[in-house]
Amino acid sequence: MALQWKTGAMTDAASTPVSASHSDPFGAATGEALRDEDAYTDSLIDFVTASPSSYHAAAEVARRLEAVGFSGVEETVSWEAGLPRRGYVIRDGAIAAWALPKALAPGAGLRIVGAHTDSPALKLKPDAALVRSGWQLINAEVYGGPLLASLLDRELGLAGRLTTRDGAAHLVRTGPIARICQIAPHLDRGVNDALHLDRQTHLLPLWSLAGPDAAPDAVETHLCEIAGIDPAELAGHDVLTYPTQAPARFGRDGEFLASSRLDNLSSVHAGLVALEALAAARGEPAEPVILIAFDHEEVGSATRSGADGPFLTTLLRRLAGVLGVSGDDVEALLARSSCVSADAGHSVHPAYAHLHDPAVQPLINHGPLLKINAQQRYATDAVGAAIWARACAAAGVPSQDFVSNNAVPCGSTIGPITATRLGITTVDVGVPLLSMHSAREMAGVKDGPWLARALHAYWLGA
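^ thats the sequence. predicted structure below, dont judge the formating
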């Protein structure tokens, strides 16, 4: 059964507002966010605020794309009868969008930008309310690899989807409702010497005092009330915590941005702004343009909506059919295609510079990163690097290299997965961050617009 997306009512809207740009996504229709870093940063702040979970991020991308002429389609019906040239499809917490030419030119390939919608968090277990020492806690487990200490002493909200017995999915979010409280140094004199957080004991957020009628389904019942559904109809949920503190600019000249979920909503937003600007031109691309934002990258991508699942492969083959490409011609089309995998990377940290490469030390606000790794933890090779260099040159934006210190293990992205599954040239890029995987990450206000402009130039054919 196809999922029906319904957004539940907001709790404490003053502290966790929905997007303020519902009538006009920060000048996206005229390309303002692509050109102006202040407009871009306002747009990113609004996007992060509207996207406390991967499911909300997919819905917000869809809302903004509809504002510039894209139409949603269902995976469960045939696309051959009349697929929109500008369309999108949502699969759980992932979304893919495309802009197609009327006809595929000889020698044309697919130009793909990939990112991911999820971020490290705590995910609710079933019957999520626990009682301890007069407190009611939320039973949750760690999702991905967060900086655990950054979760402490922050007001957390809950966000995600509730699924009812009829198969409908209901988006839900609360305002600040929970908190993981650290022990005072008066009670643990060594807490500042060696902080150890047991994932089962120390990371369960408190959200209420326990009354005599405290029930194990109290959290789910509360979420159902917010979403406006009967708790008896609840079949399951995918709900995670999120920091409710609003994103904010800071620094001597307001040149930095502090926010949750910049890994990797910074990349999703850059692709979205580039696609909005492409739509504003009201022409058609010379080659098919695709934006895909997967879910579950932070836990390995091996899901139906993750990069290691079939979502992109299925999408490309269905789009090829709409374009009149079949049989061996599909393989030739893929061989002519390329993908820019966009995921946040690391700026050099002044207090930990020894953990970075001694020669290659990129900085925030010096340009997006070209991410390179000899072990292919990133998919970049010389051919992909040339694609990225052309895009940056055409857009007039700077770029920085990123490589790891040989003694420090390197993370990975959707890039190698995409290259392996499809055999297409893939290059890994992203904006530099500090405090990656913290509940409060740090970016520069210049790097995001530069990334969006380079992606826009790539889609234009650079």
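The longest strand covers residues 121-132.
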